[in-house]
Specification:
Number of strands: 17
CATH architecture of the largest domain: 3-Layer(aba) Sandwich
Number of helices: 20
Mean pLDDT: 88
Distance between the termini: 61 Å
Structural class: alpha/beta
Low-confidence stretches: 1-12, 21-27, 302-307
Radius of gyration: 25 Å
Number of domains: 3
CATH topology of the largest domain: Rossmann fold
Largest sheet: 6 strands, parallel
Strand content: 15-25%
CATH class of the largest domain: Alpha Beta
């Protein structure tokens, strides 16, 4: 016991010493007035300047600006820094030409490009006839690409038949197949639609193995895959396999950063099919709105009938409760663009949980981490009923669950890979920083009815921005 105390004392002294050295390096230098002005204007954060001083203790203003801008760029999800895309001209003037990287992003980007080129160099196969059923020309082309090429991409919005096309490919190849996606819900849905038994699971669970041992690998919701997971996926495909990557390039990029799926498609080096024909007539009005968002048709967005008038917070909460209390949450969800704030996911779920608890009724929850012991996956939705959690035909005591969160209201980011019959889409102040992709993603989660509540100015501001992340993948693929 005594040695443990001595060790902890030594560890604490060492920690303080290290922190002291870091602080001296960070704050010992006087910050130039120009660098400080970037913090005051909100272009950079104080932590960006501190990081720059750690990386270049004796650096001049330009070197410090580069390191600070690199961290700011990475924090915003970009894989690299490009001065031509810096909005503040005063900061841009301090930066060198070209693309600049944090070391970890250089490595992962090079790995993605190298592995993609490896797959593209594999031998093509002969074209073959296959049962086309009711497939559209676009779906037939996507299937033929998969039959011939070792790597192909399929992109399309909701209702365009990506899952149907995956079934078409699986039927045509009739071989050992793995279907997967970043979230448990999306992976399980794709697996359940396959015409014969296949191996399924989340990407994280399957990539525990270094190689995905199947002749056909179909991956859905690829826009959600972060660069590091994407690199692992591409590296895991053996030479004899066919890899089909599916997704919607207009959805939000991965939370962890990067827009790898969109970058690969934009390179025009990979056989790609865009599914554009909507197969669901009952969603036409919602999908017309989604299309208007993609084309920045601001006037159309302004004409959206908002669900609630502006009011004080107490009134808004009461109106919200009046609106949702009789809803069937197996068909209905509230989506918010924000996690924090009075109209963010956390606050609304706390409010609704307290309200519904008084009625002794069930409440939806969302698993936030894969768990081998229970077999529950990140993104899987269940029902909380007193001390039990119900996931389909499985039940668990709440005490045995992996980490979860309340899910009557979910973030637009977390909603990717899911659809609901009816959606209330909240767009609070602060949404504009996410860009039009957050509007498109939120709108396209609704299958039958959609109510949007938000400040029209916020909607317009979001429409005029994009959350697409910067990388060098597009350029490197062409080398």
């Amino acid at each position: 016991p005594n040695s443990g105390v001595l060790f902890m004392f030594f560890y604490e002294e060492k920690r303080r010493s290290i922190l002291g050295i870091a602080k001296k390096k960070m704050f010992g230098q006087k910050t130039s007035s120009k660098l400080q002005s970037f913090v005051e204007r909100g272009t950079l954060l104080a932590i960006d300047i501190a990081y720059a001083k750690l990386q270049a203790p004796n650096g001049d203003e330009k070197e410090l600006a580069l390191h600070a801008a690199l961290l700011a760029s990475a924090r915003n999800g970009h894989l690299c820094l490009d001065k031509t895309l810096i909005e503040d001209p005063s900061l841009s003037d301090l930066l060198p030409e070209g693309k600049h990287y944090l070391p970890k992003y250089t490595e992962v980007e090079d790995q993605i490009v190298m592995q993609t080129k490896r797959l593209l160099k594999l031998p093509k196969r002969q074209k073959k006839d296959f049962a086309q059923g009711k497939a559209t020309e676009e779906q037939q082309q996507a299937a033929q690409n998969a039959l011939v090429h070792p790597l192909s991409l399929i992109t399309g919005g909701p209702g365009t038949g990506k899952t149907y096309t995956a079934i078409l490919i699986a039927k045509a190849l009739q071989t050992s197949t793995i279907v997967t996606a970043p979230t448990g819900k999306a992976a399980a849905h794709l697996e359940s639609q396959m015409p014969f038994p296949v191996k399924g699971g989340t990407l994280h669970s399957l990539l525990i193995e270094e190689t995905l041992d199947a002749n056909l690998v179909i991956v859905d919701e690829c826009s959600m895959i972060d660069p590091f997971l994407f690199a692992r996926l591409l590296s895991s495909i053996p030479p004899e396999s066919t890899l089909v990557l599916m997704g919607d390039i207009h959805q939000l990029p991965a939370v962890e950063g990067g827009s790898v799926f969109a970058d690969l498609m934009a390179s025009n080096t990979i056989p790609t099919t865009t599914l554009s024909k909507c197969m669901r007539s009952d969603r036409k009005e919602i999908l017309d709105l989604a299309n208007a968002i993609l084309h920045n048709q601001v006037t159309e967005m302004r004409n959206v009938d908002l669900g609630f008038a502006d009011a004080d917070l107490e009134t808004i909460y009461q109106k919200l409760w009046d609106y949702v209390k009789e809803k069937d949450f197996s068909r209905f969800r509230i989506l918010s663009t924000l996690r924090k704030g009075p109209l963010g996911v956390d606050a609304l779920n706390r409010f609704l949980f307290e309200k519904f608890s008084s009625k002794a009724i069930q409440f939806p929850i969302l698993i936030t981490r894969n768990d081998r012991r229970t077999g529950l996956s990140n993104g899987e939705t269940g029902i909380l009923q007193k001390d039990l959690a119900i996931f389909g035909d499985k039940q668990f005591p709440v005490s045995e669950l992996p980490p979860y969160e309340y899910a009557y209201c979910i973030s637009v980011h977390k909603s990717q890979g899911s659809e609901y019959d009816d959606v209330l889409f909240l767009i609070p102040d602060g949404t504009e920083s996410f860009g039009r992709e957050v509007l498109y993603t939120g709108v396209t989660r609704a299958k039958h009815s959609l109510v949007i509540d938000g400040n029209p100015e916020q909607i317009v501001a979001a429409l005029l921005r994009s959350s697409r992340k910067i990388s060098g993948i597009h350029d490197k693929m062409k080398l």
